[in-house]
# Entry
Amino acid sequence: MMKGIGVSAGIGIGRILRIEEHSLEYTPQQVTDKDAEIKRFHDAVDAFCMNTEAQAEALRKSAGENEAKIMLGHISIVQDPFLLGEVDKLIEGGQCAEASFESMCDMFIQIFSAAEDEVTKQRAADVRDVKAGVLSILLGINEVRLSDVPSGTIICVRELTPSMTAEMNKENIAGILTEAGGTTSHSAILARVLEIPAVMSVPGIMAEAKNGGQAVIDGKTGEVILSPDEMQLKASMEKREKFIRERKELEKYRGRTTVSADGTEYELVCNIGKPEDAAKALEADGEGVGLFRTEFLFMDKTSTPTEEEQFREYKKAAMILGDRPLIIRTLDIGGDKEIPYLGLEKEDNPFMGFRAIRYCLKNQELFRTQLRAILRASAFGNVSIMFPLITCVEEVREGKALVEQLKGELEAEGIDFDRNIRVGIMTETAAAGIIADLLAKECDFFSIGTNDLTGYTMAADRGNSDVSYLYSALQPSVLRMIRSIITAAGDRGIPVGMCGEAAADPLMIPLLISFGLTEFSVSAPSVLRVRKSISGWTKQKADEIAEKAMSFATEQEVRDYLKSVVSD
Ligand code: PEP
Ligand code: MG
# Structure
């Protein structure tokens, strides 16, 4: 078995069609009739635009408007006046159209590839695609028409381009296998929208895969089996049937509100780590973002991001979401999340040490910079601030006082922000659970972080396999903690969400409905499954189950009972 990155879920079973890269090599010529060469170049650009428009049109029908825009983006690249002007100049200097166009594209590819952010890096792949497209036309090369391949084909290619993906007829393509590329590439996004199972970045696949050979791919786990035996084939077919059945079933929940069987509405939002993930949240039908883990913006850098850099990122997420909620969590470093350039001292017990809100309150410059950036971004959407790892009231008061001070500063500077921005906390420590009633008076909302709450309640490190038997949100102690946090929020009339992994656990959902949770924040792929699960419960039934579940003394009993009453 080989393994790559599963980028588009589903089981693909079929015969391999290798797409060999055409050699786009040519011998650079010196041109004498420069006007004719410029015309040849512009004709090729026009032909490229016509082909691409046709691909965009096909994609508009098979996938949607946003996906068509990816192809139209290629037209914008090739029609860029600077690019065209520079190519013309090079041709006027005597270089042939191929060499002139290629050298300009290579320059852009180099610039984009050197960028730090994924989105700009992705543009390099787009320019590469455009370069190959125009060069093929100039060199008179006919590409394989992916729209005409036989049904049950698994495409195997070194790197998939968006234009290849756009040409695919999803009825015939059973799967996509590539040696390069990853989750955030445009091709991966298109594969997901077209619902074609895809596994990318499979090392050595081009050397191993034979044309016409059978293959099975799992677009979720990234597993690839070449020449499967009878047993593997049978098991894969069953897995595929199950996947298709479940997908169909879940698709019924797309575009709906999240509502229980007796009509109570819930907010179903996503956890994200990058602004671009906000788009993925919407693609998955999430209703906003309940947790933006900002530490990833810090981890990807070699020094603290400036206010301007952070502002841009938060604003990007806010604008993608429009008036849907965006809860931005302030920096949660320390414990398992290290940022080398902050120079955090090694601690004997980092999970109980100088981390998250504790670190931020003591490093005011860093905290002020982040809060100002969030406040500024709040002018562009429906933004809330959330403090992590709160253990006492003073931390909330100090954090909020700083927010108020910064609001005053921005006001004086004439910079716009949301004056009514909500400030809430992660309730993820045992202390926060025990004084939830006191904290509720200080906050606009709670979000229960069960990942940490479980660890801190059970005194069991989530990463330590020796104590993993204790680490469960279904432990009676953790369930009591969760219940008391939700009750305290309810008594005070503030919304209470859950952004830990437990929010997506089907066994936990009836309990959360019974306790009175108002918001579920889950990973994007879980959205439809959680919506379906919520839709199956009435408050009365959830109450019955919760009452019984809370009567058990051990995690095993709770789990066994819930498994017996919760259908998958
Ligand atoms: C949590 O602790 O449950 C949580 C959502 O935060 P993180 O996993 O980022 O610590
Ligand atoms: Mg946490």
Observations:
- The radius of gyration is 27 Å.
